[in-house]
Prior knowledge:
mainly alpha
Amino acid sequence: HTLGYMELQENDYTALELLMRREARYMLLLPLLPWAALQWTTCESGTPWPVYVIYGATLLRSKIIELSVLRKLKVGMLFYVYMVLGCFEHFDWFSDGAF
């Protein structure tokens, strides 16, 4: 199996499992963003804006992938609500690392 990006086929749970594992590994790297910018972070100005740009791109990428997975699994509307709530949890996790 490849770890590259590929279209998820219906009932291909092996590819889905590989995708979810890869994305979980990427999420483990997210708290390193504020840590890498620690040298330039101050109480007065906060975290530098490039960190937020990188974070925003990462969040958008992860939510696009999550949306495609939810569509392939044909889940109910409640799961989409949870996805939106997950955005807030995602940002909270990032901001905890930043502050």
